[in-house]
Amino acid sequence: MAAPTVTCVVPLSHSICGSEVLCWSPDHKIAIATNRSVYVMDMQCSPNDINKSFTLPKCVIAAPGERLEFDVGITEDDIMKKIDSQPSEALSFMMTDPTLTPRIRAVEVATGYKIVKWSPLHCDHLGRCVLSCLTLDHRLTIYKHTGTNQWHQVVDLSEVLYKRLKANHFEYQPSTHHDHVPQAGKYKDYETYMRRRYMLASVAMDWSDVFHDQTEKHDGKGYHVSKKRKVENGDNAKSFVFLFSYMKSGHIAIWKCYTPVTSESSVSLYTSIDTHFLSPSTIAWCHRDNYNISTENHGLLAAGDSSGQVRVWDLNVHDKAVVRSSLMIWQDRDLLSVDRIAWQYKADNAISILSITKGHHLVVFLIKTNKSGIEVIDKCQPYSVHPLSITGLTFQHNIILSSSVDGTVNKTTININNDSISLETDSIGLVDSPEQMATKYYAVILSPNVTFVAIVACETKYFTGKDLVEVRFLEIKSMEGVVQELQMIEGNLSYHMDALELIRQRVTTEGELPKPLRQFIDGISNLSRPTSLKIQLFLLKLQLSLIQQTTVPKSIRMDLEDTQTKDEATTEREQALIEEITVVEKKIMKSYVIRQLNRWLQDPSSIVKLTNAAKTTLLTMADWLYHNYREDSEQLVSSIYVCLGNKPDDAAGREICTLCYGKLESSDVRIASCAIGHSWGRCCLTLRICVKLPYRRCSHCGSKAINIENIDDAVGLTDLLHQPCTFCDGVLL
């Protein structure tokens, strides 16, 4: 396989000390866990950016300042005294287990991060992902994005679990027995101490898909919330997501998180599963759809053990009994630890592909569920994909990438023929390190659309022993593959930001559109589908940015809204592009406004009950559509005017300049100007002018939007103002 192109290298200030330290979210954020902090990089893809590499604003989530210690009713000193008075094998076992003796470990090591995992989409108030982090001292927390490069801790699940278990006499469920806990000594206090410590120690975690809430019942033990639970904004919770926490005791604590996840009240301990594993290692959920709320009522969960065993559960997501069936798919205790698990669901033939790593081996299972339970249809195990232990595993589409401590990355392609599976493994030819450097790869991750791959690498100098830790981004998809992906895009364009970013980097590097892209533009120029129009708008703006870069000095910042600078340095090609952009933007806005007005007209009686702010928004959209596309939408607009008791003639004084009280023109989708020349930016969601500060901006294209807090009576506009950017589907911040 040809060597992929390294497009970006991001150095890290801290070293790596965990297992699953790298994760790429569906909304294109990258999290890296280190021994001091979690780095979060938010990939930006703006057509106005002429940078030839990634734009990755980076923020840091610092490690907790204190070690995680709980009072389990028996102190560490008491246990040590009893062991010292009667020496046994328990002494060596306890001294080598940091979970039992946390105080003998250094602060910076004990509180570092070992695992980071992104939730699916639709988990915060803007439909984005939230981040779960696990430290070396077993502290499990959830963070949400609160602003530009700002992350806020939502809940410390370790603290919540401790309070719950302490109130329940350190039992997940009253009937639970723990006879399987390893007996390191013959002392009752020691065994009780170890069991309680292990019950509070999370070693791995993973998120489920997002599901619609159905019915719930209170069991009186704090494992639940009410059937119609009220969230902080006053709306009934309609969806939830599970967070599975794999405990050192062998239990899987299942946390139910109602979306949006805003505070500790959004999360509750739902139930638990006892795996009966002695040394848990990793856990993974089989995601069916990271982008939409799932309509399924069950899903697959896999957990591995350091002894080598792997079990799969079929879980009912709407029933407290949870487990529908389970199957031990790897029964041999071969002492090859199951370090990593990855799933892929194939909707075409309703099967799931499970891949696990055991030492330097990769094992792939073909699994199907039916009424009788879980069935392993086929299994494929090549001799080995790496000569040394596998340190990273990622699975997207039919491609598995694995990294190793020997500094190699291999690509394994899965082929499915009927009910049989076969693997083809090739080595990705990376650039060799200098002779005086030793390279080790800690983790590897594919972007959601298999466009880029990110690798956490550590280069060590032989003579000095100094480590250089960095994240390398490599381009692995061809331009032809990207164009093919663009032709199939439906729905939210921002979900395919990695493909757009590859296009942006390639165009800014070569200075022109590649031939496959030019052919693609010719093919979609006459289409009116919103997604095609948004792609066309992105490519037109990208071409405009290139022209402005070559025709205007770098000291001058060109902007579509800066008409004076634009007139000074406008070329014929530039002017033609600006006109094309204006036409495409109006087409996108027309489609959006028609969709919103039709949504309101589904229940005409509710329009009369709208607040003044909502009525003004509705009339502003109708006015814009009436003045720009009267022939195409006269019947639709007339229905809105009739419901609100207005006439088209009333629109003459509906929008006025707040400085001179003059009439504002309503043809431009970006700017509203009066006769004197005062200009106001238009909200891309409501078409109203942005008067009050601060207003929001799209993180990708820079479009403006009204801040919901600046509207006196926003009832009826909440859903509208929480939508993404009209022109590119970017997040409005």
Question: Explain this structure to me?
Answer:
With 733 residues, the chain is α+β, with helices and mostly antiparallel strands. Among the domains are: 77-103 and 119-279, no CATH class; 480-584, no CATH class. The chain contains 15 helices and 32 strands. The protein has a four-stranded antiparallel β-sheet, with no helix packed on it. It has a four-stranded antiparallel β-sheet with strand order 2-3-4-5, with no helix packed on it. Strands 6-7-8-9 form a four-stranded antiparallel β-sheet. Strand 20 and strand 21 form a beta hairpin. Helix 13 (612-628) runs antiparallel to helix 14 (630-644). The relative contact order is 0.08.
Oligomeric nature of the chains: single chain
How is the main sheet built? 4 strands, antiparallel
The helical percent reads 10-25%
**Strands, total number:** 32
Low-pLDDT sequence parts = 105-109, 175-186, 216-237, 552-558
* N→C terminal distance: 41 Å
Please state roughly what percent of the residues sit in beta strands, choosing from under 5%, 5-15%, 15-25%, 25-35%, 35-45% or over 45%.
25-35%
